[in-house]
Amino acid sequence: MDRRFLLAIILMIVIAVAPSIVFKQTRRPPPPATTAPPEQPAPPAQAPLPTLGPTEHPVASAPAETVLVTSDLFTYGFSTLGAELVQATATRYRSMAPADRGQPVQLVTEDGGWLGLTLVVGSDTLRLDDWTFTSSTPRLSVSGPSELRLTARRGSVDVNLLYRFRPDDYRIDVAGTVSGIGPNGGLLLVGLGSGLRQTEADSVGNHNEYGLVTKQSKSDLTRFSRLQPGLLTTFSGPFEWVAVKSKYFVTGLLAVDTAGARISGLTARAHPNPAGKPLAADIVVSLPLNSTGAFSYTFYAGPMEQPRLARLGHDFDDVNPYGWPGFRTIIRPVAVGVRWLLVWMHERLSLAYGVVLIFFGLLIRIILWPLNQRGMRAGLKMQALQPEMQEVQQKYKNDPQRLQQEVMNLYKKHGANPFSGCWPMLLPWPVLLALFFVFQNTIELRGQSFLWLPDLSLRDPLYILPVLMGISLFAVSKVGQMGMEPNPQMKMMLYLMPGMMTVLFLNFASGLNLYYFIQNVVSIPQQWMLAKERIRLRPPPAPKVDPPSRSTKKPSK
Questions:
Q1: Which tens digits make up the pLDDT trace of 347-404?
Q2: Could you check whether the bond before residue 238 is cis, i.e. omega within 30 degrees of 0?
Q3: Neighbouring C-beta atoms of residue 319, cutoff 10 Å
Q4: Phi and psi of 213, rounded to 5°?
Q5: DSSP per residue, 322-348
Q6: Which CATH number fits domain 65-321: 2.70.98.90, 3.40.50.300, 2.40.50.140, 1.20.1440.230?
Q7: How much is the pTM?
Q8: Torsion on CA atoms 252, 257, 260, 266, rounded to nearest 10
Q9: Whole-angstrom Cα distance, residue 345 to residue 383?
């Protein structure tokens, strides 16, 4: 382990840590916010359109009933008052929040508003949240493709909603018509609620992941904490889909046809929060209506299971952000591949995820063993050139151009490459960074325990693994310095690096610490073998020559 490698490691740490600090401060702000009117905000004004029929007389609403739609995966509840989705339960997942720990995950917040409808025609705005809908069935059990129909009428306006369900998917295909809106059409505003219910033991980490994701040519994430509390923020489309996410769960509305994206825009109003950062925001999506009043979209409410999201198409799986902006292009493919392999080993080999991480660490080290061996031997070659390098540097220290030329000649003569010793050792770092995001956003690892660790996706509550990781890193560095000339800088880094990494990893996912610990332990034999080779190839010390003794015999006269 030479100085170049240590400098490269420090650079990688800076790359790993700096974006999480810098991008939080310099993230692209959302579009300018405008003060919202008291009533439901409407999208930008369009050409004058016919008004709705006479509805000035209040209509008494019947008591609300909830139509339950159930399958092995979910339980959805639709209210007959406003046709809102008032319940969305992912029955195969358990809540870890203290308030309802152990209960099936419920995603709808107390504020509700999911799939609530508002009709905008010309200067008229007609809310449907107090309309009474008639259901085609009081309860629906989904064992195959199934449908639910909700209808309502007031004055000259008829609203017909058709929901289609599949037993093995969280997707809901929605189609509907609004009659009586005139030849110029209008806008249908669909509510996505104010966020997702708190479901995690680490509420702070979950709240930090709350955000709004939109897709035009590429996905764009706006965290709720970046919105201005109490103000209305408008996002201009068209969008293929709009989603609201937490750490592990997501709701999304997708509206795409052969003509392109059909979401014309959306609005977000963040809720004020005593801590200063909003944790909820009312999201309303705009869908244009033509003269027929027909509309359709797909709604998803469930876990962020990457294969399931990918099957929805239109890059909806990108709602799960692997990597920081600027690094996502590099990190995301690695993270997706790592996630797939971990899940495959768990499901196909029936191994606990802790054991999977141990085998994964061994596998990565075995795959990279030849490259690391080559890199380390290149480092040995560079070390053997140091005496000649020092002579060249001393000889041409006043002629930089000649010095550079002679150094390159020296490399060429001995077939050495100053960079070949570093890049093989940096190859594990993309995997390590990818694992950081895999543990941060992969729902399959949520709540997976191992030994004393209650959750591999959360930090070690006893801090045992970060300490073991630091000790193992010290051992790797210590063995790697065997046979090297004493160097004060190397000695300092021997103690500084393990300490820095231990502090850095204290609050990282325990699974990430486990992987890095295994990597370090497995690399010790390779470091020891190369250290022995370094000692064997080291030239013997020059023989010690005693200085000539001074004669004490006096010269003869």
A1: 999 899 999 999 998 888 888 777 766 666 666 666 666 667 777 777 777 777 777 7
A2: yes
A3: 26
A4: -120, 130
A5: -S-TTTHHHHHHHHHHHHHHHHHHHHH
A6: 2.70.98.90
A7: 0.76
A8: -30
A9: 41
